[in-house]
Amino acid sequence: MNQMVRRSTLILPVNIPKFVEKAYLRGADAILLDLEDAVPYAEKENARKLIKDSIPLAARGGAEVGVRVNKDPSLLTSDIEASVHPGLDGITLPKTESAEEVRNLEALVEKLERQRGIKPGHIKFSILIESPRGLLKAQEIALSSPRVKSMTVGMEDYCLELGVEPSPDGLEIFYPVSWVVTVCKAAGIRPMGLLGSIAVFRDLQGFEQAAARARQVGCEGASCIHPDQVPVLNQVFSPPPEKVEYARRAVEAFEAGVRRGTASVNLDGKMVDIPVYNRSRLILQRADAIAAVERRKAEALAKLK
To answer: Looking at the predicted structure, is the pLDDT value of residue 171 above 50?
Structure first.
C-alpha cells in the first residue's frame, strides 16, 4: 500500500473567491474545490470558469488540490474539461455506483492529460459512496482503475438514501463505513471518512469524536467544511508522539531480540512479538509520511515570504 497521506481535506465552494484565496493558509493536507453540492445550479457554469485559476491559488501552501465534480451526466463532462489543468492532483467523483462510471471518467481524464501536457496518470480519483447501490459495488469500483486512491462514505446522502436522519454517533453508517474500510484495505487504497456528521462545524468536540470513531475502524483521514475542523483532523489522524516513540523502541527491541535468536521480547512489561513489531513499523511509516507532508507544506509557505 502506498503512503499517501491525506488526514484533512478542506471542501470549499470555488465560486466564493475569499474562501479560495485563504485556503492555502488553513493547514489542510488537501483542498477540494467544489463544483457539486456547495454550488447552486444557477452558478455551475460560472464556477467552472474559476477552476483553472483557483488551482494554483489553493496549491500555494503545499496542499494537494482536487475538484469535486457533478455526477449528473449533463454536467460531468463540462466539469471535467474545466478542471483538468496542470497543477490539479485529483478528481472526486460523488454518488459513484459502478466501475463503468470510473472507467468512463478515466478515459476522459486521460485524453485531457495528453492534450494539456499533464503527466499521464498524474490525476488520481477519490470515490464517494453515497447509496446502498454504490456500497454493493464498492469492491468493483475500488479495483476499476489504478487512479482510484481513496474511497469515502458520504454520510448525508447515504442517510438520505436510507430514509433516516444522521445521528451524532453515526450508528446508521457504521456498517457502510466498516465495509468500505474492508474493501479499501484489500484493494490497497485509502479509506476515508467520519462516523458522524460533517455538517455541525461549530461542535468541534463532537466532530473530533466522529473522526476518532472513524479512525478506530480504520479510516485514515476525512473531509471538513470549515477551517476550524482542519487541525482536529490532522491531530486525530496522526499517531500521538508517545505512540510513535513506543513504536520506535518496540522495533529496536524486537530486532535486537531477533539477533539474539528470539521473536518475542519484553518491553515495559508488554510482549513485543511479530504482529506488534509489524504494527509498530506501520506506525513509524505513517509518522514519517506525515512529517514529509508537513515539510512540503512548510517549504511551500516559506517560499511565499
So the answer is: yes
Neighbours of 269 (CB within 10 A): 5
CA distance 2 to 215: 18
What is the Cα–Cα distance from 215 to 192, expressed in whole angstroms?
Answer: 9
What fold characterizes domain 8-236?
TIM Barrel (3.20.20)
Per-residue pLDDT reduced to its tens digit, 93-146: 999 999 999 999 999 999 999 999 999 999 999 999 999 999 999 999 999 999
Model pLDDT for residues 174-231, shown as the tens digit of each residue: 999 999 999 999 999 999 999 988 777 789 999 999 999 999 999 999 999 999 999 9
Q: What is the pTM of this model?
A: 0.93
